[in-house]
Amino acid sequence: MLIEQLINGLTLGSIYAIVALGFTLVFGVLGIINMAHGEIFMFGAFIGVILTTSLQAPLWVAFMSAIVITAMMGFLLEKFALRPLRNKQGVSHLAPLISTIGVSILLENLSHHLFGAGNHPFRASFAQISFEIGSVTIYLVQLVIFVISVILMMALSFWLGKTKAGKALRATAENLETASLLGVDTKRIITMTVIIASAMGGIAGILVGMAFNSVTPQMGLSMGLKGLAIIILGGMGNVKGAMAGGLILGLAETFIVVYGDSGYRDAIAFLAIIIILLIRPQGLFGQKISA
């Protein structure tokens, strides 16, 4: 029982980590919280529903379509909601945040119009395939989700640390003006960052559909707030912190449901925010800012 719940927690935490990575990439480069990220994630999930359930398309087609469409949504978000406000005289530093909140509300209402309210089933052909190791039952879909999450997180870490584009992104995050003076095309880097973050949200949406077999138009807000909680827990703008924070939250929620009161499941994320802000304001993996 304990091992099975640990597997469930790791599966859920892996999805949370991917969502949080999208948040932390945008925050690391632009210094803003993208409140539309949850709704972009939700659209990725609905793309999976439409393709796998309504059109009977293979799962890999749903993945590729979700990546392409959510990446396009990220491009449009950056071009029309964020870029016009950047470095504009007299614009409040809260303006980009308010802009993404507006996009979030727009996308949620659009999803109600396009997909309708309520739960929509997500049918993965192998969702019921399982095998037993001793007394532990493991579902194939759990392994697929975990493996995809680990590969994605490792690929992102490698890209950020070893490639020229990844180093340019880290330089832009460190100091936008200095990176520009050193020849980095910061406009392209910013656009690429939002596109990558949005595409990761689309992948996470497909994974959530696979994990829970259903999606709703309201899921974006909940997942967006949890993603915010995770990056605060792990450390704002810290990639490793986002990974660790997602896994911690996934495990905590799973064990609360099993050994506690499931009604408090969603409260765990925000209780964690309060505790972390009181004890370690910079997050578990964040760097303390000297006065």
Automatic annotation (TrEMBL):
It is found in: Cell membrane. GO terms for biological process: D-alanine transmembrane transport; L-alanine transport; L-isoleucine import across plasma membrane. Its main location: membrane. It is a multi-pass membrane protein. The chain crosses the membrane at residues 12-33, 63-82, 94-116, 136-160, 189-212, 267-285. CDD domains: TM_PBP1_LivH_like. Keywords: Amino-acid transport, Cell inner membrane, Cell membrane, Membrane, Transmembrane, Transmembrane helix, Transport. One of its GO terms (cellular component) is plasma membrane. It comes from the Bacteria. InterPro entries: ABC_transp_permease (IPR001851), BCAA_transport_permease (IPR052157). GO terms for molecular function: L-isoleucine transmembrane transporter activity; L-leucine transmembrane transporter activity; L-phenylalanine transmembrane transporter activity; L-valine transmembrane transporter activity. The keyword Cell membrane applies. Belongs to the binding-protein-dependent transport system permease family. LivHM subfamily. This is ABC transporter permease. It comes from Mesobacillus campisalis.
